[in-house]
Amino acid sequence: MIGEDKICAVVAGEKAQDMWRQLREALRATPTVELRLDWLKDDREIARFLRLLMAERPSGATLVATCRRRIAGGGYRGTVATQLIQLAEALRAGCDWYDLEIETTKLCPRELLDVLLGEGRQITSAHYFRGMPRNPQRVVRQLASGRPDMVKISAQCGSLDDGLRLLRLARGRRNVIAVPMGEVALPLRVLGLREGSVLTYAPVENATAPGQVSLGEMTGLYRADKIGRRTRVYGVIGDPVGHSLSPVLQNAGFQARRMDAVYLPFLVHDLRDFLAAIGPLGISGFSVTLPHKEKILRYLDGCDPLAASIGAVNTVVVRGGGKLYGYNTDYVGVLRALERRIPLRGSRVLILGAGGAARAVAFALGQGGASVCIWSRRAGRAKTLARVVGGEAVSRSRLGSEFFDAIVNATPVGMHPHGDRSPLNARELNCRLLFDTIYRPQRTKLMQLAERRGIETVSGVEMFVAQGTAQWEIWTGERAPVKPMRQAVLRALAGKK
Fold first, then answer.
1. Is 106 annotated in the active site?
2. Residues 293-315: tens digit of each pLDDT
3. 318: which residues sit within 8 A by CB, 6+ positions away?
4. Cβ distance 387 to 364 under 8 Å?
5. Going from the N-terminus, what domains does the chain have, and what CATH number goes with each?
6. Which residues of the chain fall short of a pLDDT of 70?
7. Catalytic: which of 293, 295, 323, 483?
8. Percent above pLDDT 70 for the chain
9. Which pairing describes strands 62-66 and 97-101: parallel, antiparallel, or unpaired?
10. Nearest CA-CA partner of 299 in 315, 323, 266
11. What is the pTM of this model?
């Protein structure tokens, strides 16, 4: 029965053999699978796939056939008549359900559908790829008017508020699937089951809608089918945020300690939209990355004195009554990454950048007794930060002729997906140690330039793991399982599952 296994794998490919291979892979994770027949390149490939399915229908599987026409955002180029014939063939081949978009149901009398597709159970769906419909409640009523077994509404959501409004349509109802689309709404796909949607969709290989979470991540990284009302929700907010391995790090910790908690990536353009969703989503705490480390301060109800001095926060705890309290664990990460390699006291260290991460680095080095120099494209900010930590702002022209015990890159230049970039050129790397706070890629272009000159390098992975495990401990009040958390990050960086 659909809905008992709430994660629905999406199988989509151009060739029958690709679809069959994906189906077998999907069934290792969930018995509920949507077969996107419209992704197959033509009617002959659809026929080939359905023959494979009829010859060896997987036992115990709940299969949903979809052959969505292009007018509804699908890939099927045939007529309404051939679309219905393909769905009828899919039911005969062993599918239990079929998904028929509202654009087709409007053209087909219920009696015709009963004759052609009466063997299967019907999902009637509506898809809004350009944004939320004006009246989503009316859309659901319209979908239900044809008496299908289930209705599905999918809409592009430009904000978390949009996504929450969409999910509320399913709350308390056993026949409504609500699917928020778009990168901003990605966390709501993971939390959708808890918020009331009958299903959440996850592709095996090919994304079929904006903001989808892969099946492997949905079942393994986020364990969406195990999320309930008591699950504690954490996350990282940033813009961009898709590169972040914080979900890998933090969820590895929760799984190692068998905690009922999940950590999600939130693409946040508007801080107020995210802050308004903290209560409805039951968020217990969150990490803060670019560009919000300094902006978040104005929304906090309290702040650790060190974080207040730094002027940047990377960790927030949500206390009783929704009160927000900020910390900065980047400071800890810097010290742990550098202290074992150079004596901070008396060392001359150049920091690249003057943003939130650079501020944490500067305070950590300054309090450790280092002589701090700062270069930034924004000279005014460099001078301000240097003044606060008792350091010196330097110009770019001086970098080629001066020597530093260490150089620390605290800018995002060279971060994935722009790994071919470097904030400095080779002749400007006059130092004994180069520390790049970027952890993805693990070996940045800047590190490669330094290594060619015989300079010792330190990857941002060390700082990342140190600051992240400190966050984990602040949120949970327990000692972090550092080893499995570090191993999870290194596996992800190596491209291993």
1. no
2. 999 999 999 999 999 999 999 99
3. 278, 283, 284, 285, 286, 324
4. no
5. 7-229 (3.20.20.70), 237-328+466-493 (3.40.50.10860), 331-458 (3.40.50.720)
6. 1, 3-4, 496-497
7. 293
8. 99
9. parallel
10. 323
11. 0.94
